[in-house]
Structures are given as C-alpha cells and as structure tokens.
Specification:
Number of helices: 3
Order of helices and strands: HHH
Radius of gyration: 16 Å
Helix content: over 70%
Strand content: under 5%
Structural class: mainly alpha
Number of strands: 0
Distance between the termini: 64 Å
Shape: elongated
Largest sheet: none
C-alpha cells in the first residue's frame, strides 16, 4: 500500500518562513544595487528590519504578493518608513 504524506500546518509555516527569508535576502540585494547610498546609510541590520516591517505592514493592508510588497517597501525607503501613517 502506498504511503501518504500529510502536510501539516507546521510544514506550511516552515515553507512560508523560508520563502519570506528568501524574499528578504532578495530585497537586500535589490536595495544594495538600486539604492546603494541608502542601503549603506542604514546598514544590513536596519535594512533587514525595514524590509521585515514592510512585509508585516503590507500584509496588514492585504498586500501579500511579492510583486506588490516590493514597491511598498521601496516607498518606505524613499519616503519614510511610516509613509502610510504620516500626514
């Protein structure tokens, strides 16, 4: 009898975390290439924090596709990390 493999929520969570880490890494490289001055000014740790905050904030607005989250984070870098809440 063939064995079945059940995907659990833990599997899905691990996959999601892995994909989010990959996206964060890609965004760091993107910012270092496209916005080198800003990326150097922030440094790796703050840049990663900005990206993680951007992912979370975008998710709060229902923005979840990487193609949509990336420009959202770019706006955070270009305008202000809290551009969505500033007046």
């Amino acid at each position: 009898m063939p064995r079945t493999f059940t995907i659990t929520q833990a599997h899905l969570d691990a996959f999601s975390e892995q994909q989010e880490q990959r996206f964060e890494d890609e965004m760091v490289i993107h910012f270092q290439k496209q916005y080198p001055t800003e990326a150097r000014r922030l440094g790796d740790a703050l840049l990663r924090e900005l990206i993680r905050d951007g992912i979370a904030t975008a998710r709060g607005y229902g923005i979840v596709r990487e193609l949509d989250v990336a420009p959202y984070i770019e706006l955070m870098l270009a305008i202000s990390p809290d551009f969505d809440r500033s007046r």
